[in-house]
Design goal:
- There is one protein chain.
- With 406 residues, this protein is an alpha/beta fold.
- The chain is built from twelve helices and 17 strands.
- It folds into four domains: 116 residues, NAD(P)-binding Rossmann-like Domain (Rossmann fold), CATH 3.40.50; 37 residues, no CATH class; 111 residues, Cobalt-precorrin-4 Transmethylase, domain 1 (3-Layer(aba) Sandwich), CATH 3.40.1010; 125 residues, Tetrapyrrole methylase, C-terminal domain (Methyltransferase, Cobalt-precorrin-4 Transmethylase, Domain 2).
- The termini are far apart.
- Bound molecules: S-adenosylmethionine (SAM).
- S-adenosylmethionine binds next to α9 and β17.
């Protein structure tokens, strides 16, 4: 076989001595994987980069501040030569060869007895790529494989059954690009997806035909509450051995009833993974050009549900306290009650001319923004026919970007 062909192998280095010569950029890049593998690392170098020094200080490597000496490889299983001293490298390489220790050389790949592959990890899979003399191509292939596994575009189904399980996945505010990489991968692996009306519905169109998509709003619930019926559907499909994703808008734990589902699954003994999502409370204002905080303008933002009117006895919100805050208020589920909420804030002392923006269907192609003040927002929302889903932003941050929206 050619000189460029290497036999791939996975070294199990836990507790085994690895000697690294040199503590510059190359060593800095290689050390984390050796540390992660649990190797007993002896680092020999008169000086080190700040990052390598930190590893030594943290006790992750034993650092001897000196140059290489004959005999340093005694007891080693593997050595890495990364110094820029050609004579020391040649002598060290000769010692490794004489002792039959696999040896990587950063200065001269052709003289080395081992090569470091470009490596990556995704969900328990290690990818290692060797191309002989083209490390950039190795890195590019590694990146493509890791990326494909992460986002699910490289289909690699698991064949060992992991038992019933459900993933509660935050799908982000609506734009299908705003789901996390992990969420997208779990969706690509799902057999059953239980989806809400809110959230990135476009993602559902990408699913292969065998995936059963269940509209959570249409699950028949007879004598159960709707939420209980959804919980039961998740449990039943998981028990039937299906890989189940509960796809929710925004983040599952921000007014998403995610915890109720997690608790129901725990009670049923079904493991559940929660994948955070980008919440509309921050991203929808952002998509409309409104930062929820801004230096010198707002040092806090408060996210509140507006689904219950301020004078409703079931309300858990202290509107008087909120009215006293100077920062940004972000209201979700507040379109219907916005007139009463704005009036309560003004009654409790927030200035009537405080700028307000209402952003409907943020991050989607039909996003729109309506600007008002606390005094006018109730009327304006009605006059302009604003419909849910919409996020209401109240505070001076709105004025930072409102010129084009009045
Ligand atoms: C039941 S809550 C769920 C919130 C979600 N878990 C999150 O983190 O974004 C639904 C409310 O979120 C807001 N919302 C969600 N997606 C939105 C979007 N794309 N544009 C505007 N508001 C949105 C609306 O206020 C809507 O009434």
């Amino acid at each position: 076989m050619s000189e460029n062909f290497a036999y791939p192998v996975g070294l199990r280095l836990s507790g085994r001595r690895v000697v690294v010569l040199g503590a510059g950029q190359v060593a800095q890049r290689r050390l984390p994987a050796l540390i992660a593998a649990g190797a007993d690392i002896l680092l020999i170098s008169p000086s080190a980069t700040a990052s390598v020094e930190a590893m030594a200080e943290a006790g992750e490597v034993r650092w001897e501040r000196r140059r290489y000496q004959e005999g340093d490889f005694e007891g080693a299983w593997y050595v890495l030569i990364t110094t820029d001293d050609p004579e020391a490298n040649a002598a060290a390489s000769a010692e490794a060869e004489a002792r039959r220790i696999w040896c990587v050389r950063s200065d001269d790949a052709a003289a080395a007895s081992a090569w470091t592959p470009a490596t990556g990890r995704s969900e328990g899979v290690t990818i290692a790529v060797l191309t002989g003399q083209d490390p950039r191509r190795s890195a590019a292939v590694r990146d493509a494989v890791v990326e494909g596994l992460r986002d699910g575009t490289l289909a690699a189904p698991r064949h060992r059954s992991r038992g019933p399980r459900v993933a509660l996945v935050g799908g982000g505010p609506g734009d299908p690009d705003l789901i996390t990489v992990r969420g997208r991968r779990l969706l690509a692996e799902a057999d059953v997806v239980v989806a809400d009306r809110l959230g990135p519905r476009d993602l559902l169109d990408e699913l292969p035909p065998h995936v059963e998509v269940i509209d959570a709003a249409k699950i028949p619930y007879g004598r159960f509450m709707a939420q209980e019926a959804i919980n039961n559907a998740l449990i039943e499909h998981a028990r039937a051995g299906k890989s189940v994703v509960r796809l929710k808008g925004g983040d599952p734990f921000v007014f998403g009833r995610g915890m109720e589902e997690a608790e129901a699954l725990a009670e049923a003994g079904i493991p559940c993974t929660v994948v955070p999502g980008i919440s509309s409370s921050i991203s929808v204002p952002g998509a409309a050009g409104i930062p929820v905080t801004h230096r010198g303008v707002a040092h806090e933002f408060t996210v509140v549900s507006g689904h219950v009117a301020p004078d409703d006895p079931s309300s858990l919100v202290d509107w008087a306290a909120l009215a006293r805050l100077r920062g940004t208020l972000v209201l979700l589920m507040a379109v219907e009650k916005i007139g009463a909420i704005a009036a309560a804030l003004v009654a409790h002392g927030r200035a009537a001319d405080t700028p307000v923006a209402v952003v409907q269907e943020g991050t989607t192609p039909v996003q729109r923004r309506v600007d008002a003040t606390l005094a006018t927002v109730g009327e304006k929302v009605a006059a302009e026919g604003v419909r849910p889903p919409a996020v209401v932003v109240i505070g001076e941050v709105v004025a930072l970007s409102s010129r084009d929206h009045r």
